[in-house]
Predict the structure.
Amino acid sequence: MGKGHPGRVAVVTGGAAGIGQACARRLAEDGVDIAVADVADPGATVRLVEETGRRVLAVRCDITDPGQVTDFAEAVEREFGHCDILFNNAGMYSMLPFEEITFDEWRRYMALNLDAMFLMAKAFLPGMKRRSWGRIVNMASNSYSLVVPGLVHYIASKGGVIGFTRALATECGPHGVTVNAIAPGPTRTEKIASSFYAQHGRRDEAALDTFLTGIAQGQAIKRTETPRDIVGLVSFLTGDDSAFMTGQTLVIDGGFART
């Protein structure tokens, strides 16, 4: 079992691939049993967690739907009896000029990037407070500090995540529950790739490499961020060593936001 995580149970949203999958695997290596919620097939993540010897529950569900969140929470209760760690990782990303953002698109972003965190916290926070121990980690973005054009809908939702994190931490602190956020930069995942290809109308891996390399040149660490760069921070924030840290948003983007 991992040093700071013995016998814990973690819920990871958006855990079928990318950052969620990498963090699910790392938490399993830390000694944590894993429950994954995703609309996509989580089979690959199940196999990665099982390789560590930890137990895993994977449910395909839409975490913007209150009823499906309730069903998922009940499944976690039946399988593990409780949840100690909530990693609110699921989200969506695309670049679109403000004039082209419809209200329906705006609501889609708020629903997944922000509302779902509210629903998941409502489902699992009461149990954490009863046991006087819990860790909630929310996915924000360094774009909130950079204010990149074409991301009004995305940045607004991630700004909400930062506010939600700070406010919820205030209420949870007396109960042994910490709430923090992480703010990565553009990370090489299939989600980022799919968004890039959709925007350009074709699958062009060379163009994607050029785009990400261009971003990396503005960083202090001049290489593209990957999910492996993020797992250590999530491991720290969900363990005992971070017990006195709460309400914080930690930027992990190779030093890009320093500019």
Summary: The first strand starts at residue 9 and ends at 13. The chain has a mean pLDDT of 93. The chain has nine helices and seven strands.
